[in-house]
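Lab meeting, action items carried over

1. Structure of the two-component assembly. Owner: GW. Status: complete.
Input record:
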Amino acid sequence: MTETTGRPLSDGDLTLVTMLARGLTTGLAAREMHLSPYTVGERISTLLMRFSCKNRAELVAFCYVHGLLAGQAWPPDQATPDPRRQPEGGRAVMPFDALQELREAGQPVDLLSTRQREILASLSEHEVGVLLSIQRRLSEVEPEVDGQELKLL
Amino acid sequence: MSSPGRLSDPDAEAAVVLASCAGGDELVAVHDALTGSLGTPSVLIGQADLASTPITLDLTSGLLDVGGRRVRPTVVWARHWGAGAIAAHARPAGPVSSLAAATWSEFIRQLTQSAAVTLPGTAPVPPEQLADAARLGVPTPRTVLTTDAAAGARQLGSPRVVVKTANFRLYEPDRQAWQACWPRITDRDAVTAGAGERGRPVIVQEYVEHVRELRVYYLNGAICAFAVRKAHPSSPWTDPLSVSVTPVDCPPDAAEVVQTLCAAWQLSYGAFDLLVTGAGETVFLEVNQDGDWLWYERRARWHGVSFLAAAMVGQLFAQVAA
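Predicted assembly:
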């Protein structure tokens, strides 16, 4: 059942939806909230179900429209640091960190063995980009379509 | 695991060989990640290749030729390569003779023998898994195999039971016929033989009251879990969009069950179905060493299993190559 009134968002959920409104990934939001990506993903799923929203964009829009998210939540306050933005010239002074890039994209890097992490740590920015593009491609297949395909589970 | 020790063609490139004889595109995703990002040579043999691509395995040298590309299989991951699955799910769709299915199955078995590392390993078949797991101290539901579901239910004594057919998707190509095989929960006294169950054994299992259902993936040490919420056991086929799949931290007790069973069965990969009771106990239902993951990932909109699978294969290849 869709909930449109009644309980306001908890402080934690409000923080999370504000981060989603600012475009943060699950991984980045998890890092900011000092939670695991799974926990954050679970919270997002719970909110999606609570408000019968199909995706994060609809969730953010829903929260704005129903006054659950304050108008000043976006655009972000310039004084509030955005974890995605490096200092000027950040890429030049910060070496590329493949594991961090993958982690921020929501990949379960911390479940890998030490040897697996070593291999992935050696990937170039381009190679990480290719890996993440494969992940994105998988995401682009809608479950509705996949549901029509053979699945042996 | 076996060592080929045969290098008659030093020019043949060592490579990962991924053979997917039925099911989804799980190994396509792994292949793309290996070749596109990790720099690992990889050969993909898909369902359609079985019918259309010239493939030769040299039993003396252990070398594999796929469409003119000659490689030395180093890591082989073969999925759904039993004769029944090959016959039921041929691509392009069409009748495959029992002989053709059996010879392809034997071919893939030989292919796995030619590699230094083979995935995923071999678990017992589902009903046998339960007895084996119970012997290892893992909680399992009481289960009978029977041609008389009502008698089986009475024998269990549980007020509610689950009636199901193991792996029906693998052997039954006609999706219309799946309906007769869908698992169903029913009161013990209401159990009757389903239309499709007469004349063949079914699994009748004690229904375990639970607070959480988990699909847990084991990938050579890495464990990741999804919480699954569905109205009925058949919902993934009858109403897939109603099934909620959420990535979660694997509870320690569930992780221990998975590790125990994978160690006992020497599995490098497995898709586990587990229940967590109100008392926090993890109950083992089944592991599928060929278990799909893309459907769960897409429902969860998180592709961590594909990522872990590619990392696992890439690391195994690097380990052998070193």
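2. GW to write a short summary for the group page. Key points so far: Chain A touches chain B at residues 26, 36-39, 41-42, 45, 49, 102, 106-108, 111-113, 115-116, 119-120, 123, 127-128, 130-131, 134-135, 138-139, 141-144, 146-147, 149-153 (CB under 8 Å). The CA atoms of residues 30 and 37 of chain A lie 5 Å apart.
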